[in-house]
């Protein structure tokens, strides 16, 4: 059955009614999942396998029949490990129906159907008894219910229920325990992701509103690849603290709790940010450990096991506090059933602050962490101010089109007569009522452009559609800023990100190819023909071609009626494995001022790339990886078409004569 779905178009601003299959949401979920990343995580898989073998051996040593409960089985990998290790029977629970079907297929293909039962339910709905989903309670509990924050996927309530209803009182658990670590640091770079900083404009110092300064901010975790944050960009104010542990082999509570770590400040500074990660012990003795520590916490960073399904966490204190070297400090972590938050007290005040912070200024609800960083980017601000200074006149009438932008304030400080920022730009065309606000013709239409609904680089072309909608309000000699946008491409070899789209085939000796086939079917449904957004500053890559401009959008003109097409070739200049193409926008503010949403510096000789940390770039992954010689005999061919009616960009790439 197909249904009509209303979808807000992030590029055109229109509400598009499209016919979708009832399985569309499933396909999107599967195509953009990280199942492949988990199966490519060799460190994770090996540690789980070792822990499962040890747990099965301990139960057998007691003379008991081994019954395993695997919650969140995914592909069924951990259940197959358990049976191979000697388990008598496994109950594999998976709530996501397509994944449960894939697990059933994988279990059958590997010959374990007689010992593994896949149950397509949430674990809290599973029943035990002669007529239940499980015939008996399990004596080994195996789970993989964790996210970057450890408990964000509901691990605590799931464990709590399992111990009450699904497993024996003396059960073994893999993992056996988890430990959460944290370190208090000072970091101007990271703090700029949470608080708006003062801004200098032509000698005027713009201070953030008191409500923003005093706001505790949003409590949500900022999960990133902390290994890509240079150690020189933060100063540790204290040691790495063990905040709390959870023993999964015993009853677990999901009730809110707080824990305190006491230490002396190692140096004086401003306490702003808490860096956090966790590790899991697969056995009671802690001999089998899988850690999420960042690479710079390893004695040999080259041994760091990359993974994207579990990263590290950045938490922002409600307010920065000055601390002195040697001062006694109390770092407090609190949690409810799904999230963590941190606070800091001094020795004279040891009361634990258990209240969950919330945003009272609204800014933290409107602006994302990267958006805060973008607004605090001094070099970027200077580019916009210089561009505005070159075009504004005392009698300029300005209209700003961007979400949560500071450009109207900049224009006012630079002497603009009238500045207006409309709040009704989410409609495709103005109504007559809207037009009464504009009694003067607009002489400057400006935008960053930035829109909160934008995911892919070209979604910000919404500015172009807005410009077209207000064409009748523009003075004949009106200035448009930016005057144009150019879409760039570059072929890349990823250091690690390729794993999230690479087929697995076999994992720890088990055939998981049905999962590869399931993901490919979902990709073929639509997603394989599209790029996907990624913050490439977190994912090192090496350029195999030079940056190539492929489409230019002239904002001084209205959106055209006909599609805009571009095709051509770009030579491979680097030798390596070509995983895909990165795409980004560059905005021409004026004739001589351009800002890039992608590469921020020229590609280095060895191909190293530096990416804008405030915007996500587009990545078009190739279905198969091809080696390039870099000797100039191979080309990347491209064909891109911008459809002005949908705002979409269709793209196709090929290497030499082979379609990728």
UniProtKB/TrEMBL annotation:
Q: Which residues form the Protein arginine N-methyltransferase domain?
A: 176-345, 484-656
Q: Which keywords does this Swiss-Prot/TrEMBL entry list? A: Chromatin regulator, Cytoplasm, Differentiation, Methyltransferase, Nucleus, Repeat, S-adenosyl-L-methionine, Transcription, Transcription regulation, Transferase
Q: Which SUPFAM superfamilies match?
A: S-adenosyl-L-methionine-dependent methyltransferases
Q: Kindly give the Pfam families that the UniProt entry links to this protein.
A: PrmA, PRMT_C
Q: Which GO terms describe its molecular function?
A: histone H4R3 methyltransferase activity; protein-arginine omega-N monomethyltransferase activity
Cross-referenced PANTHER family: PROTEIN ARGININE N-METHYLTRANSFERASE, PROTEIN ARGININE N-METHYLTRANSFERASE 7
Q: Name one GO biological process term.
A: spliceosomal snRNP assembly
| Keyword Methyltransferase included in the entry's annotation | yes
User: What EC number(s) does the entry state?
Assistant: 2.1.1.321
Name its cellular compartments: Cytoplasm, Cytosol; Nucleus
Q: What is this protein called?
A: Protein arginine N-methyltransferase
- Which PROSITE patterns does the entry link to? SAM_MT_PRMT
Query: What is the species listed in this Swiss-Prot or TrEMBL entry?
Result: Cyprinus carpio
- Supply the Gene3D superfamilies for this chain: Hnrnp arginine n-methyltransferase1, Vaccinia Virus protein VP39
Which family is annotated? Belongs to the class I-like SAM-binding methyltransferase superfamily. Protein arginine N-methyltransferase family. PRMT7 subfamily.
Q: Which GO terms describe its cellular component?
A: cytosol; nucleus
Q: Does the keyword Chaperone apply?
A: no
């Amino acid at each position: 059955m197909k249904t009509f779905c209303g979808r807000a178009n992030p590029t055109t601003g229109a509400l598009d009614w499209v016919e979708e299959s009832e399985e569309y949401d499933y396909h999107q979920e599967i195509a953009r999942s990280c199942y492949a990343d988990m199966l490519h995580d060799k460190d994770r898989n090996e540690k789980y396998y070792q822990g499962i073998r040890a747990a099965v051996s301990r139960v057998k040593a007691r003379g008991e029949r081994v019954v395993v409960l695997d919650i969140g089985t995914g592909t069924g990998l951990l259940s197959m490990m358990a049976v191979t290790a000697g388990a008598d029977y496994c109950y594999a629970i998976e709530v996501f129906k397509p994944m449960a079907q894939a697990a059933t297929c994988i279990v059958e293909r590997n010959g374990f159907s007689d010992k593994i039962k896949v149950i397509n339910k949430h674990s809290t709905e599973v029943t035990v008894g002669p007529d239940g989903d499980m015939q008996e309670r399990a004596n080994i509990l195996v789970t993989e219910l964790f996210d970057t924050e450890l408990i964000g996927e509901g691990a605590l309530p799931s464990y709590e229920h399992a111990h009450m209803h699904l497993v024996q009182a003396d059960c073994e658990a893999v993992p056996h325990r988890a430990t959460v670590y944290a370190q208090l640091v000072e970091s101007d770079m990271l703090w700029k992701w949470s608080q708006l900083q003062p801004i200098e404009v032509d000698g005027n110092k713009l201070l953030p509103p008191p409500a923003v300064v005093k706001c505790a901010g949003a409590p949500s975790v900022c999960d990133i690849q902390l290994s890509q944050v240079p150690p020189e960009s933060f100063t540790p104010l204290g040691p790495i603290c063990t905040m709390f542990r959870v023993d999964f082999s015993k009853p677990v509570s999901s009730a809110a709790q707080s824990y305190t770590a006491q230490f002396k400040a190692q140096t004086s500074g401003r306490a702003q940010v808490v860096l956090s990660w966790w590790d899991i012990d697969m056995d009671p003795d802690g001999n089998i450990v899988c850690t999420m520590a960042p690479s710079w916490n390893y004695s040999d960073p080259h041994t760091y096991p990359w993974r994207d399904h579990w990263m590290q966490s950045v938490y922002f204190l409600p307010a920065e506090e000055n601390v002195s070297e040697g001062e006694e400090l109390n770092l407090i972590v609190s949690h409810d059933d799904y999230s963590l938050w941190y606070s800091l007290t001094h020795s004279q005040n040891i009361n634990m602050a258990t209240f969950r912070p919330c945003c009272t200024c609204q800014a933290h609800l409107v602006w994302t962490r990267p958006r805060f960083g973008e607004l605090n980017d001094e070099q970027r601000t200077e580019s916009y101010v210089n561009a505005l200074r070159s075009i504004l006149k005392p009698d300029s009438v300005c209209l700003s089109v961007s979400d949560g932008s500071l450009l109207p304030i900049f224009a006012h400080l630079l002497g603009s007569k009238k500045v207006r920022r409309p709040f009704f730009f989410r409609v495709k065309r103005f109504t007559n009522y809207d037009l009464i606000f504009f009694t003067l013709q607009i002489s400057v239409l400006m935008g960053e452009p930035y829109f909160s609904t934008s995911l892919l680089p070209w979604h910000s072309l919404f500015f172009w559609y807005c410009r077209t909608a207000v064409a009748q309000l523009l003075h004949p000699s009106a200035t448009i800023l930016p005057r144009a946008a150019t879409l760039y491409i570059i072929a890349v070899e990823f250091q690690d990100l390729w794993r999230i789209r690479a087929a697995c085939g076999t994992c720890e000796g088990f055939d998981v190819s049905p999962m590869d086939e399931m993901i490919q079917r979902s990709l073929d449904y639509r997603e394989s023909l599209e790029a996907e957004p990624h913050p490439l500053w977190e994912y090192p890559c090496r350029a195999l071609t030079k940056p190539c401009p492929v489409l230019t959008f002239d904002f001084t003109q209205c959106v055209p009626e006909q599609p805009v097409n571009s095709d051509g070739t770009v030579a491979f200049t680097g030798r390596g494995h070509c995983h895909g193409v990165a795409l980004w926008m560059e905005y021409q503010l004026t004739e001589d001022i351009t800002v890039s949403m992608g590469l921020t510096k020229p590609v280095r000789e060895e191909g190293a790339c530096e990416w804008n940390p405030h915007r996500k770039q587009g990545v078009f992954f190739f279905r198969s990886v091809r080696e390039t010689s870099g000797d100039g005999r191979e080309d990347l061919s491209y064909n891109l078409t911008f459809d002005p009616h949908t705002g979409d960009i269709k793209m196709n790439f090929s290497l030499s004569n082979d379609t990728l």
